[in-house]
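Ticket #4471: complex job returned nothing on first submit. Input attached below:
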Amino acid sequence: MAPARDRRTGFSRRRQYSLFIGYVLAVACAVVGAVLLVASAVNPPLFAGLRMGLAGVTAPVSSVLMTVRDGAAAVPEWFNGWAFAHAENAAMRRDLAAARPLLMRARVIAYENNRLRALLALRERSAAPVVTARLVSSSASSGRRFALLDAGRFSGVRPGMPVRGPEGLVGRVIETGPNAARVLLLTDADSVVPVRRARDGLAAIAAGRADGSVEIRSVNATNVRFGTGDVFVTTGTGGLYTPGIPVARVVANATDTALARPFAQPDALDYALVEQAFMPMPPPLAPTAPAAAP
Amino acid sequence: MSAGDADPFALALPAGRARALPWMTVVAGSLVTIVPVIATVPILPPFGLLMLLTWRLLARFALRPWAAAPLGFLDDLLSGQPLGSAVLLWSLCYMAIDLIERRMILRDFWQDWLIASGAILFCLAGGRVLALPVGAPVDGALLVQAGSTILLFPLAARLVAWIDRKRGLA
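Support reply: We reran it on our side without changes. The output follows.
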C-alpha cells in the first residue's frame, strides 16, 4: 500500500494547528473514556437514560426482526409436525397414561393443601403480573448478559421487577426506558438469586457464571452435598422474587459449590412475564424534622 | 483504487455525504447487536470495531484521529459493556496504529491484517477485563469470538474498499 503520511503540512498554519488539535482531541477523548469507565463502575445506572433512550429506538426494530425470525422458523416446524405426527401421538398417549395416576395424586394433595392453608389462615402473596412481553435482543457481543425487553415504563415495567418464563426465572429488570427495558439475565456474572432446594429447603444462592450456567453455593452450612438433578427454586428472601419459581437444576454431583443449568432458556422463550416485585420497596423515608435546638 | 478503472463521468457523492459514510458504516457495525438473538455466551463479533479498524488501516484519512471515541461511545450504549470501555480501548488502538504507522510506512495487506488482529485481541481482552470478574469462565467463547472477528477482516476490507471507491474521495 502506498505510504499515506500527513506529517508534512506545508506552510499553512491552519492545517498544522488543525492536525495538532486533532491529536490533542484524540488523547483527551481517551482520557474522557477512562473517566466515563470509572463513573460507570462507581454508579452503573448513571447512563441508563442514554442507553435506554437508544434502546427505545432499537427495540421496536428488533421486535420486528424477531417476528420475521419466528415466521421463518415456523416453516420447518410445520413440515416436522406433519412428518412426525404419528410418532408424537403415540408418545403423548404413553405420557398421558403415565401422568394420569400422578394427576389424581396431585389433586388429592392440592385439596389437602388448601384445607390446611385455610386452617392456618395463611396469607399468600401472589405476584401480580405486570406485562407479558418478548425478549428481543441481547448483548451478544459483550461478556455481560443483558437482554432487551420490548415493554417499558409505559407498560408499567420498573427496575427491580422479576422476569420469568413458563419454565422458570429469567432475570430481573435493571433499567427501563419508555418502551424498552433492560433485563439482567440469571447467568450474568453480577446476578445473585437467593434459592432453596425444592426437596428439603436447603438455603443457597444461585450466582451467574457468564457462560450460560449458574453456580449454586450453599449459604449457611458447610460440607453440603449437591446431587445431580437437585432442583432449586426462589425463596423470596430479599423481597424481589416470588417464592417457588424454578431457577436451576444441578448438573453434576458436588460439595458446597455446584454447577447448575437454568430452567428458562431465554433464546427459546416465546414470552416473558414481568411480575411485581414480591415485596415492594418501602417508600423513601420522609425527611425527619430537624431536632429541636437545646 | 487506481483512477484507471473508475468511470470518469460517474458523479461523485457530495463531500459532506462522502465524509459521513465511514462514520455511518461503523455505526451500522455497532448496530448489528440488535439482531434478535438472546445469546448465552459472547458470540457476536464486534462489527463496529472491525469496521473502524478497517477504515483506519485501509483509508486512513476517512476518519478523524479523534473519531474512535464518539464511535466507541455509541458502541458502548448499544453493546452492554460498561460505558467508556470502547471509548478508551478504541482510542488506544487508534493511537497504537498511529505509532505503528510511523515505523511501517509501506505495508501490505498481511501486515494490516496482523495489526488488526492485535487490535481486535486487545479490545476483546480489555473489554472482558473491564466488564467481567477475573474468574468468569468465558475465555473459550472469547477466543472463538476473536478468531471469527479476525477471519472477517478480509471481508470487511473488501467492503470498505468498495465503499471507499464508490464515495469518490481518494
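The radius of gyration of chain B is 17 Å. Closing as resolved unless it happens again.
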